[in-house]
Amino acid sequence: MKALIPAAGLGSRFLPATKAQPKEMLMVVDKPAIQYVVEEGLASAADEVIIINSHDKKSIEEHFTPNPALEAELRSRGKDSYADKVAYAGNLNVSYVYQEEPLGLGHAVYCAHDKIEGEPFFVLLGDVLVPDNQMLIRMKEVSDEHNGASVIAVLPVPHDEVDRFGVIDGTQISDDVWKISSLVEKPPVDQAPTNLAVFGRYLLTPRVMELLAEVKPGAGGEIQLTDALDKLLEEEEMYALVIDEEDGFDTGTVESWLDTNNRLYKRFKG
Ligand code: G1P
After folding, report:
1. Is the pTM higher than 0.70?
2. Is the Cβ atom of 247 under 6 angstroms away from ligand 1?
């Protein structure tokens, strides 16, 4: 299976910090946010991690490219532990496809359609960090229990925050699994069917790529992955894994990014 990481967005919510620096390169505790996501993809059942990048965000690619000069300089100064970190990041196995225009998450995912070749695939959004790397593995288990169906991670959020997310409706079938009946992207608070918010981890069947080719712009005038998934429900079953607050860390707003830095700092160093 392949893991896709869309990273071509404008990072508007973080301006001006993201004027000359991709949002994905903002540091969380001690490394860029996107490094957590790449490591998670590689730690899961995925055999290839593909970043869907924009041509303007070359620093993401530089981060995952070896830098022998910097490494040698650090070693010559006796700073081997830092040199090891440089070598590690530069050798993570990542490839790239490009999204020429930021037309939405659905469009970004579709940019990798040539890479999918009729197999299920993961999508990992960089706004969400899963430092223990266990979520995709659990999602694969749920998919296997349901004949290879699509599975998405959802997090219960306060009702007044649902309009920031994709939201699911459905029926609870076990402690942490729901069978999904519909999805809606960024519903007004008073129209959200539940408070179960799509949380940035998806295991999808290849049919999603075909549906994305036809999906029209939705919420915010963007081509939405959520809309393609809602269409998929006309043909296939789909399940939601309900995750716990402690499993996933949101970095999608300045506030949640600061909060995640504090919580992860305590977890790693506390
Ligand atoms: C995207 C998805 C949304 C999901 C969210 C999670 O929205 O479209 O369904 O709930 O990520 O972070 P975005 O944050 O890109 O607007």
Report:
1. yes
2. no
Strands 27-28 and 31-32: what pairing?
Answer: antiparallel
Question: Residue of the nearest CA to atom 15 in ligand 1?
Answer: 105
- Give 78's DSSP letter: T
CB-ligand 1 contact for 18 (6 Å cutoff): no
Q: Distances in Å between the alpha carbon of 173 and those of 36, 144, 177, 202, 230?
A: 31, 15, 6, 19, 19
- CATH architecture designation of domain 2-269: Alpha-Beta Complex (3.90)
- Centre a 10 Å sphere on the Cβ of residue 220 and count the other Cβ atoms it contains: 9
d(CA 99, CA 148): 28
| Domains of the chain by residue range | 2-269
Cα separation of 29 and 52, whole Å?
24
> What tens digit of pLDDT does each residue of 62-111 get?
999 999 999 999 999 999 999 999 999 999 999 999 999 989 999 999 99
The rounded distance, in Å, linking the Cα atoms of 270 and 259 is 15
Question: What number of other Cβ atoms are within 10 A of residue 49's Cβ?
Answer: 23
Q: Write the pLDDT tens digit of every residue in 103-147.
A: 999 999 999 999 998 999 999 999 899 998 999 999 999 999 999
